[in-house]
């Protein structure tokens, strides 16, 4: 049966995780659907962007950002709440705040504040650097600046003093001692604080970050501590400053049922705080709004069984019902949605440098008369794989392993040559491939053969660093949609895992999205020699950029923002990736000193007549070019 683009769409679930943002065009290339000023969709090929950037001296790995997708996400989230509140006659409003930690890049923060202004979109800061960023960017007095995290006196003082400028800053009490710490500073500075409290819900959480919520979560006050805090506020005549109630259940919550349960508990606490006499007014439901990374729309860890509209409708309904039954006003609802706002914004693109295949479909040469008997016996097995039944295949497999081991032992004891061993291994892989291909015809695959196909998965060597660009895949096995960017009208006949260029056995991607679970391979095309075969890792806009590290001293990749102006693709905000000199200086080397040190070695070589003066000059030119070059593999 012939392959088609529709089959590729299905295989990689593009339309499920890509929503209407990513698709495959008639040329078999992945496109991003950007909007022009008139709201017309313009599909832009990702491989074309990579090619354009390469011509401009920005080769892969390249991180591509789409400002348009960021603004559309902000729009969708706000519209979901506006719609949910409108249809249920909710009396409060929605105020999103973006948690800076999720992607701190200046461009992201600027965009959120500019575009989000019409929604009074605010920011969440959890540290002093984030507070400074938020203070510099928030201009809208109706937007919230929510201060979470542990706060020292400097943090508290700055937040209090800055609140006098009209910025709506709320200091959230994260631990018992912060009540007095904030009130003491407020009194000393004679500034009325606006306070929030973070609560540790008992409702169970789910997903990778389940520990962020629940009784044993590290942040927030439990019920006893919260009541103590309320009493302390009353004692100090400061309950009047308590405006906000906050909880955070953890990120990437895949199950709407769990979200609903938490919200139910939270709104009960909120109602009680109002009944205790606090003015309140704001209910901050934290982050957790998930992304459907695998497109399965299930409660699997890398998916979510709800959409933006369902999320908003459910939360609004729960809060509304609880407040109505207690006859208290509907609060302003806040979510600190990070991942859901920025994940779609960035795509990492990289190329394949080389391939190691294990599957051997070309029949090797038959052994010669004077070749070792073991080689001949191994050869005979593949000739037996004609009748297909489980018993024969199992037997062939056992014999293949036996003769392969015998051949290795013969090599180790010096009986056969490396050439003969290599010949044996070629026959071995050919036989194993033949067995694996016949397994499909069996009704039941013998247990010992079930993992045979996995052993045939190729290594595709990919020009990027998992540690730098997909740290969550390395650290917590988070799945991202990953797929080839071209040739999608052709059947991807090969199965591969992606080995990065860090030379670390953990530096690989060997788990991939699948609507039915997790795949142990990525379907790819057979790469032609020297082909610039491109792969994209999608939905990497949240958390990945700053969590990444410098393992093997591979630095930040090049970055470009892509948009549409007057119907044309425009490239802006280009950021050059780290040079070798940059990464060396991050680990305390001085590039100038390094150069001088090597110059001494080169000059000594001239004096000892090992190289000529001209060769020294050429060598130092190459040294300097490397120092100023990209840390990744470059095609020269
Ligand atoms: C307090 C707080 N709010 C919001 C978020 C953002 O969560 P998410 O990216 O799941 O929306 C986080 C991150 O875990 C967080 O710690």
Describe this structure in words.
The protein has 636 residues and is α/β, with parallel strands linked by helices. It has 22 helices and 23 strands. The strands form four sheets. Strands 4, 13, 14, 15, 16, 17, 20, 21, 22 and 23 form a ten-stranded mixed beta sheet that branches. The chain has an eight-stranded parallel beta sheet with strand order 5-6-7-8-9-10-11-12, covered by helices on one side. The longest helix has 23 residues, at 390-412. The protein is globular. The two termini are 40 Å apart. The mean pLDDT is 94. Bound molecules: pyridoxal-5'-phosphate. The site of pyridoxal-5'-phosphate has 17 residues, from helix 12.
Bound molecules: pyridoxal-5'-phosphate
Uncertain runs: none
Count helical runs. 22
Question: Which term fits the overall shape?
Answer: globular
Structural class: alpha/beta
Strand content: 15-25%
What is the annotated CATH architecture of the domain at 1-67 and 345-355 and 458-577? Beta Barrel
Give the fraction of residues assigned to helices.
Answer: 40-55%
Question: SSE layout and pairings?
Answer:
Layout (H helix, E strand, L loop, with lengths): L4 H8 L1 H4 L4 E3 L5 E6 L5 E5 H10 L6 E4 L1 H21 L9 E3 L6 H10 L6 E4 L2 H10 L6 E4 L5 H11 L4 E6 L4 H12 L5 E4 L24 H13 L6 E5 L9 H20 L6 E3 L23 H18 L6 E3 L4 H4 L3 E11 L16 H12 L5 H23 L5 H22 L12 H4 L2 E5 L3 H4 L1 H6 L5 E3 L9 E6 L8 E2 L2 E3 L2 E3 L2 E3 L9 E4 L6 H4 L10 E8 L2 E8 L4 H7 L4 H17 L5 H15 L9
Parallel strand pairs: 4-22, 5-6, 6-7, 7-8, 8-9, 9-10, 10-11, 11-12, 14-16
Antiparallel strand pairs: 1-2, 2-3, 4-13, 13-14, 13-21, 15-21, 16-17, 16-20, 18-19, 22-23
Helix pairs in contact: 4-5, 4-11, 7-8, 10-11, 13-14, 13-15, 14-15, 21-22
Bound molecules: pyridoxal-5'-phosphate (PLP).
